[in-house]
User: What shape does this take?
Amino acid sequence: MTVEKMLANYEFEQWLYKEAQLLDDIDFDGWFSLMHQSLIYQMPVRVNKEGTERPDYTADMYCFDDDIELLKLRVDRLKTDYAWAEIPPSRTRRFVSNVKLDEYVPEQKASVNSYLLLYRSRSTDIHHDLISGERKDEFTYENGQWKLSKRLFIVDQTTINTRNLAIFI
Amino acid sequence: MLKTTKDIEDMTKAELLEHLNETVRPEEGSVPAYVLADPKVYELEHKKVFMKTWIFIGHESEIPNKNDYMLRDLAGYSIIVSRNADHSIRAFYNMCTHRGMKLCRADKGNKATFVCPYHGFNFKNNGDLIGVPLQKNIYGEELDKSTMGLKEVRIESYKGLLFGSWNDEVEPLDDFLGDFKWYLDILVGRAEMEVVGAPQRFVIHSNWKIGADNFVGDSYHTMMTHGSIAKLGMVPSATYSKMGYQIHSDHGHGLNLGTPNPDFAFPEELKNEFKANLSEEQYEVLSSLKNMIGNIFPHLSFLISHTKVKGQLISNTSVRLWRPIDADKMEVIAWFLVEKNAPEDWKRRSRESFVLTFSPSGIFEQDDTEVFTDITAAAKGHMPAMKGLTYNYTMGMHREPVEFVGPGVAYDDKFSEANQRNFYKYWLDLMNG
Assistant: This one.
């Protein structure tokens, strides 16, 4: 690995940490500003296959299937007084690890894989939810900043153990 | 004078039934809170409702080809539903008849035989035991394979919707659905429909009846719970949800039919297909349909929803099972259906609107699940039973049914609880069965 790529890997690690912080701090506008106009934000439904056949997720059904316009709608909705699913907001903690820079073209584009462990606690409920999975992200460089242009989140459960996905992955 | 009742925990089955008959009073608009969380009620419900009636197991389009199979749950038991060589669909309990191991663990696939991972017994997808490793050597001539076929499950279908039952004496599905079929024709019989992708699955800490209750007749909650949708301009106004009819039929089935709609909610290109599949009256209802939300007893809810997404109107059709896991826990399994012959772009937008509104991330769905969870939590434990806490189901009791073009008992707007009363009435009938 070249020093240049090591530094870039570090840069994307910091990007993902910052993203996690914004979401955990419920700064959705701040988070949304990290998105590129061409965004594809997807979370396919994971399925049980017979053997080691891959991919073991569906290519035609999603828990999230948003472009920038729909993601904006979700962010706007959370700011209405009726978004009960997140009133009061869940306490979340996003642990991002195993950050691996794959394709990298300086100041153009990059693809980054990482793992996400998301802890969610709501109100006085003693149950907490854990959502774990892999992110396959793509970034586009624009106006001196890396913006997220694609996220594919591969969740580790076929039956998701949380009451809803009123939170972002 | 009120008599002091025992703790439900200490009641015999007969005493519990008597208690249910005294306290569940749908005809008076009263249902006690404890029925949503009590473990003994849940246990009785399993035997008297879920083991007795028809339970949805999937859609025929999920296994279109010869030897396709899918694994499904029937009242807590894993079953293999498979399409045989002759294209008939059959279902079997997913248990090897030798030592009881599960034969199949994948959600779906394609194969003609199932081999047990324990001793290698293998079964054809028509249930026959066709192979036993070293049979002659270890059993001699004594093993009669013909007595060791898989346990077959009774299944029947209506317009592609597959139902199974463990009850050998269950009435024909046709009779069970009865008048309600008229509306199911609009839901899934209007055109050739297909399930797209795998069903969505997620777990909520909620009793299953809250989901059924919500879909069978509760359009009233949309003004408040789904207030955000009107704020975002996806539906005309918060009060639009009152317009239409509330309809129920025998066996606890019910729906709310939203109408009128100035726009045609379905693919225009398929008007001829719709006309060919529906009666004139049904087509008329379809043409002015804004939404249709209901529940096939006990826990298969369905929905046609017509909303504005990215400035364009689009509808989506889905069915969902509130699969009980425990008194206070259920798995939501939601299938998206679309007209097979619709233009690709229409299908894509319809799926997009389903994911946006009624998937785990759905902006309608997520606010419902928050409510379901808290209702269940509040119903738990001894206090709600001890203090006799009840829910009020009296809305619309002063109203008389109206004439409607379709069958069943209809009221001329959706804000009524007649459907919930009908649901609980049949539920209580079955509990007494």
Q: What stands out?
A: Residues 344-358 of chain B form the longest helix (15 residues). Chain B has two domains: 55-169, 179-431.
